Amino acid sequence: MSLTVNCPTCEAEVEWKETSKFRPFCSERCKLIDLGEWANEEKSIPGEPAPVANDDYINEGDGF
Length: 64
Known about the structure:
Elements: E1 4-6, E2 13-15, H1 28-39, H2 55-61
Antiparallel strand pairs: 1-2
């Protein structure tokens, strides 16, 4: 019995095995759609925002 998962993009069933080239995605197309959504900030991981670097602090505090 093989393990199957749903493609995160289109929900198609995907066999989870070494030969499944794009797992957990069903295809390169679905993989690229997902990557685009992350790049466009349509997806994110919840949490505190990362601190923004302050140029004055970096220049004065670290001796650069």
